[in-house]
Design brief:
Elements (H helix, E strand, L loop, with lengths): L3 H8 L3 E2 L5 H6 L12 H5 L1 H14 L3 E4 L6 H6 L6 H17 L6 E6 L14 H18 L3 E7 L2 H13 L4 E5 L13 H8 L6 E5 L6 H10 L4 E4 L18 H13 L4 E2 L7 H12 L1
Parallel strand pairs: 1-8, 2-3, 3-4, 4-5, 5-6, 6-7, 7-8
Helix pairs in contact: 4-6, 4-12, 6-7, 7-8, 8-9, 11-12
Length: 292
């Protein structure tokens, strides 16, 4: 496990996260529909996943997200693959680690830990016992596979964010945390972002962020993130995966995203990257903007 990226956060030197996996699988002709989303490619075409990771590394990404977004037992069970949860989580990390090991620059591997149910449906968040049990299992699998940290992402409620952070801590891993906010600085649950950040502060996330939100909503969240006293970051959504009609998304070219990221970095963001709809071209342009 490497911690150089934690030193960077403490010094205030921004880090570059990678971009989307699920929509990138689709863009390259693969399948990532529900219930498995990008995890389907671990079963059908792991080489494609590895190629996507390699392209993000070549673009300049310093934090690479393993394709464990939907390798939790609950989701895999819906496709009859529940007993393969540890196997597929391990494969996801191995594919990312392989790409990271071939990089000409330092690259850390993050294990994705999303909501157990639909990222956009806070009404489906399970009870506390299920949250604790299932996030603990996923975090333990990520730790055993050798991630450098857990990326607790697209959290739509305080309750589940806290459970996932507790699981990461119990597994001995640092964690980065992303909340999804579509309309102003408010989670999809209706809870204020400021309340969410205060509620997780004691669990000591290495960084807090907003992710999978439209780029136009980032500005409303920046002052709240900055006021948290924690390192913060942004990685927005430019287009949802297939089968998620009606979700908010805004298109942006690589140049347009980099232009917006300049303002986020000026506001103090210590991490930028991309969520659904972003590509290696977006990450390469972000890398160029960060260098300049």
């Amino acid at each position: 496990m490497t911690r150089w990226w934690l030193d960077r956060l403490e010094r205030g030197s921004p880090l570059l996260l990678d971009g989307a996996t699920g929509t990138e699988v689709e863009r390259r002709g693969g399948r990532s529909e529900l219930p498995l989303w990008s995890a389907r490619a671990l079963v059908t075409d792991p080489e494609l996943v590895g190629a996507i990771h390699a392209d993000y590394v070549a673009a300049g990404a310093e934090l690479l997200t393993a394709n464990s977004f939907r390798t939790q037992r609950r989701t895999l069970a819906r496709a009859g693959l529940g007993e393969r949860t540890e196997e597929l989580t391990t494969l996801a990390v191995e594919l990312a680690r392989r790409a990271a090991s071939r990089a000409a620059h330092a690259v850390a591997v993050l294990g994705s830990a999303p909501p157990l149910e639909d990222c956009f449906r806070p009404d489906l968040v399970p009870d506390d016992a299920a949250l604790d049990r299932e996030h603990a299992e996923h975090a333990a699998h990520l730790a055993a596979a050798g991630v450098d940290a857990v990326l607790v992402e697209t959290m739509n409620s305080i309750r589940e964010a806290r459970a996932a952070l507790r699981a990461a801590r119990a597994a001995g891993l640092p964690a980065l945390l992303g909340f999804v906010c579509w309309d102003g600085p408010r989670l999809l649950s209706g809870e204020a972002l400021s309340e969410a950040l205060a509620a997780v502060h004691e669990l000591e996330p290495a960084l807090v962020a907003v992710n999978c939100l439209p780029p136009s909503n980032v500005a409303a969240c920046l002052p709240v993130l900055a006021a948290s006293g924690l390192p913060f970051g942004v990685y927005p959504n430019l287009g949802p995966p297939q089968g998620t009609e009606g979700r908010r998304a805004e298109q942006a070219s690589p140049d347009e995203l980099a232009g917006r990221a300049d303002a986020w970095l000026a506001a103090g963001a210590r991490l930028v990257g991309g969520c659904c709809g972003t590509t290696p071209a977006h990450v390469a342009r972000l890398a160029q903007a960060m260098r300049s």
